[in-house]
Design brief:
This protein is an alpha/beta fold and about 450 residues long. It has helices spanning about 5-10, 20-30, 55-65, 95-110, 125-130, 135-140, 145-150, 155-160, 165-185, 200-210, 250-255, 265-270, 275-280, 285-305, 310-320, 355-360, 365-370, 375-385, 430-440, and strands at about 15, 35-40, 70-75, 120-125, 190-195, 215-220, 235, 240, 350-355, 360-365, 390, 395, 400-405, 415, 420-425.
Length: about 450
């Protein structure tokens, strides 16, 4: 299939600069042959997050259809922040911080894209933006920009509502320069990005036309929200990161397995590589079959981000809580392991609690906050009153109900929030040396008996 059809059918396309049937046909014909495209990634953190997956997967489809994607790390633009679509200007980072973050992004993008032998490129715009001479830039580039047109841009309008800094006003020029630079040096003819980047993409296309007389295109992605209107990649416990040290593969798997019913088919199209014909069969599913589809979604998404081994471990850790069998003919192209799942509770997020603290019993309310299942005592009380909290397979009936040391088995006790969010509590092991010292009455801080 032409990659344009793939992106449209899977739900990636919000707007295209090819608006008329003739322009769209010209873009489709361009994509019949190997083409270079790019997307910019903000390096203000050392990790990408689930909200970055739409642009990442768009590049994956471009590469699978024979095109060359460029992942552009904004090391240069990151030095002044990226204000586009934001309510406030981002904190300015040092060059050393930006470079360290860029290295983290490179490693994560390599999970999704094949950078060998130039099949994909990973570039940093600091390589050219930091070498610009300001006077020459104003003379050669700035003169092609109309302030009136810039003020009509949505990103600039939002900035004006809260107060716009001169640095932010310059950002459109720098991103347009990026597109021109990639067009000239890498034959890049397509820029893709979030819907908030539309004005910046248009500026780059205009600059290419004015300086080179060339034709370039832009594609933007829709703002992605869940069926309930929540921002994609955000949970009560915070951002879902692609860095396994910030969000473990198990927690990442759990994020996807808890997908809202109305989003399952849409997310299978966007965040997996399973065939569309198979995914269409999921749209009318309900109940246990839909839950099985969620498990397949979680497995495939985790495998893409963290590798097959991590996905299998997350699946095994989750298998102890749910149905052991999956109807494999549901999505037959899935690589989810066949047969009954082995289980491994060691991969479940775990909190160690000292036995002394459990001696008098720890209230359910305190325990839910201590383990991070609830952000506050009031939220914990609300969860318990609504019947959504469990321990040891038993519903917690009162916020004051207590967990004692004898309730915690050798392998710990499992807490559950809602239907699918689990946490394990184990008793902290005390070393024999510490035990001997305690017996002697030694206080290490004071060094006396």
């Amino acid at each position: 299939m032409n990659v344009l059809e793939v992106l449209e059918e899977r739900g990636f396309v919000h707007q295209m600069t090819a608006e008329t049937p003739e322009e769209k046909e010209a873009l489709r014909e361009l994509l019949e042959s190997p083409t270079t495209c790019y997307i910019g990634f903000d390096p203000t953190s050392s990790s990408l997050h689930a909200g970055s997956l739409v642009p990442i997967m768009a590049l994956v489809h471009m590469q699978r259809c024979g095109h060359r994607p460029i992942a552009l790390v904004g090391g240069g633009t990151g030095l002044i922040g990226d204000p586009s679509g934001k309510t406030e200007m981002r904190k300015l980072l040092s060059r050393e911080e930006i470079e360290a973050n860029a290295e983290g992004l490179k490693a994560q993008l390599a999970r999704f894209l094949d950078f060998q032998e130039g099949r994909a490129l990973l570039l940093n715009n600091a390589d050219w933006l930091t070498k610009l001479n300001y006077i020459e830039f104003l003379r050669d580039i700035g003169r092609h920009f109309s302030v009136n047109r810039m003020l009509a841009s949505e990103s600039i309008k939002k900035g004006l509502e809260r107060g716009l800094s001169f640095i932010e006003f310059n950002y459109m020029l720098l991103q347009a320069y990026d597109f021109w630079y990639l067009f000239v040096n890498y034959q890049c003819t397509i820029q893709m990005g979030g819907s908030d980047q539309w004005g910046n993409i248009i500026a780059g296309i205009d600059l290419i036309r004015k300086l080179e007389g060339g034709r370039a295109y832009g594609i933007t992605f829709p703002l992605l929200e869940t069926s309930s209107g929540k921002k994609m990649g955000k949970t009560e416990r915070g951002t879902i990161w692609l860095d396994p040290s910030r969000t473990s593969p198990y927690e990442y798997y759990q994020f996807w397995v808890n997908t809202e019913d109305g989003d399952v088919a849409r997310f299978l199209k966007l965040f997996t590589l399973l065939p569309l014909k198979e995914i269409s069969a999921v749209e009318d599913l309900e109940g246990s079959e839909l839950n099985s589809a969620k498990r397949i979604l979680a497995y495939e998404a985790t495998k893409l981000a963290h590798g097959e081994e991590a996905a299998i471990e997350a699946l095994r850790a989750s298998g102890v809580f749910g149905a052991r069998e999956i109807p494999y003919d549901l999505l037959p192209s899935s690589t989810i392991p066949r047969g009954k799942e082995e289980t491994d509770v060691s991969k479940v997020p775990t909190t160690e609690i000292e036995e002394e603290r459990l001696a008098g019993g720890l209230t359910a309310c305190d325990l839910l906050v201590l383990t991070g299942l609830c952000p506050s005592r009031s939220e914990a009380r609300r969860l318990i009153s609504q019947g959504g909290a469990y321990w040891g397979g038993k519903r917690i009936s009162s916020a004051e109900e207590k967990l004692c040391a004898e309730d915690v088995g050798e392998d710990g006790i499992l807490l559950r929030k809602g239907k699918k969010t689990y946490h394990r509590v184990v008793i902290k092991k005390i070393s024999s040396q510490k035990g001997d010292d305690a017996f002697l009455g030694l206080t290490r801080e004071k060094g006396s008996l």
